[in-house]
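Quick one:
INPUT:
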């Protein structure tokens, strides 16, 4: 088991020559060397597990192992990507976009955003949790563990491009290790602490009169009942028509009945349709949403999984933070959910407790500056739930 990694981390990036090995005759990106790269990736994965064990006190070993694995995953992504483009020329443009590694934000200070009752220790604990989960996932994907692959790789990517399993695995290992690199930096940098507060109401809706501020898509039942917004079904979505930037979105969430272990809800903010799309892409099968809407979204009351995931969509479905247990796992109970977006920081609270605290370094594109809030019930099984006391409030630093 990979344990907690300490705060004082060395950089996890190492030169490619170190990752590949001095004296290798062939370039690391050549097709002929893919098998050898896979062997070296396995070695690097074992080094990640060994260095992170027992509290991860050997910071230099953790950094070196992650850096070596990252460089090999980069080379495999390029190799498998070129092979896939040759076999699937119709998908070439999309694959080239996926292969491109976006330049990550270099933080001079770690932005520690505090809201509500959350303190600095809460944010750091969430970062450490993300680091632990990311290291476990990277090691699991390197080893081909089914649970890690199922949770962190998006199955519809593989279905979209035949024979793409090796490519998408290498890409997700690369991206997960880029997130690890960011977390190592955040946990070792000096901190810039910002306490944000509500400074104005953008929209308040208690659902007592109408759905004038909302637009629904997909099947299922979406209606006002007893002064609440009722949603029952699967693959259905509803969107608030008020746009916001730096803001906190708050609402009551009461999951009533889950008709099967695949039922659940996700909450998106700040969302925008991709070019040529509109919010109707958010309804129906999940791939329509994941390739049509650019947003962060958090899944809660997440079926039988027992965990909550924060992800990024638009470019597929990408894991940002995975936390167990799911804070909204009980049906018949009302939870107060809050989604905070401030600069590159996105946080999720349930009943005042910080659940996810993500800092976006741009691994999956520029952080969204503004957008809309939406609710989607999973496709796969019906969820009956009601929503009330909705608010969008702008936020700013407290001086």
């Amino acid at each position: 088991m990979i344990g907690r990694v300490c705060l004082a981390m060395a950089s996890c990036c190492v030169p490619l020559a170190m990752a590949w090995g001095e004296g290798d005759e062939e370039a690391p990106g050549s097709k002929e060397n893919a098998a050898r790269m896979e062997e070296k990736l396995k070695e690097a994965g074992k080094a990640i597990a060994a260095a992170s064990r027992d509290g991860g006190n050997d910071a230099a070993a953790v950094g070196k192992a992650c850096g070596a694995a990252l460089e090999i995953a980069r080379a495999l992504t390029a190799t498998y990507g070129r092979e896939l483009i040759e076999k699937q020329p119709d998908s070439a443009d999309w694959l080239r976009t996926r292969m491109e590694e976006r330049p990550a934000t270099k933080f001079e200070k770690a932005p520690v955003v505090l809201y509500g009752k959350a303190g600095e220790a809460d944010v750091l604990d969430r970062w450490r949790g993300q680091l632990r989960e990311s290291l476990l996932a990277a090691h699991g994907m390197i080893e081909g563990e089914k649970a890690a692959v199922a949770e962190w790789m998006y199955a519809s990517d593989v279905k979209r491009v035949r024979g793409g399993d090796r490519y998408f695995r290498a890409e997700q290992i690369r991206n997960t290790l880029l997130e690890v690199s960011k977390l190592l930096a955040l946990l070792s940098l000096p901190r810039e602490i910002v306490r944000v507060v509500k400074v104005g109401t953008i929209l308040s809706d208690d659902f007592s009169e109408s759905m004038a501020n909302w637009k629904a898509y997909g099947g299922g039942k979406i209606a006002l009942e007893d002064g609440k917004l009722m949603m029952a079904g699967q693959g259905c979505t509803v969107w608030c028509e008020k746009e916001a930037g730096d803001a906190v979105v708050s609402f009551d969430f009461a999951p009533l009945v889950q008709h099967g272990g695949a039922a659940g809800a996700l909450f998106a903010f700040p969302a925008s349709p991709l070019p040529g799309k509109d919010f109707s892409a958010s309804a129906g099968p999940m791939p329509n949403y994941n390739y049509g809407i650019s947003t962060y979204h958090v899944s809660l009351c997440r079926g039988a999984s027992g965990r909550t995931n924060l992800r990024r969509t638009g470019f597929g479905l990408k894991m940002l933070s995975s936390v167990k247990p799911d804070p909204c796992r009980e049906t018949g109970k009302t939870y107060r959910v809050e989604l905070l977006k401030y600069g590159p920081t996105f946080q999720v609270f349930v009943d005042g407790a910080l659940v996810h605290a993500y800092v976006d370094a741009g691994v999956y594109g520029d952080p969204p500056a503004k957008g809309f809030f939406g609710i989607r019930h999973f496709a796969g099984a019906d969820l009956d739930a009601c929503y009330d006391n909705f608010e969008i409030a702008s936020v700013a630093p407290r001086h």
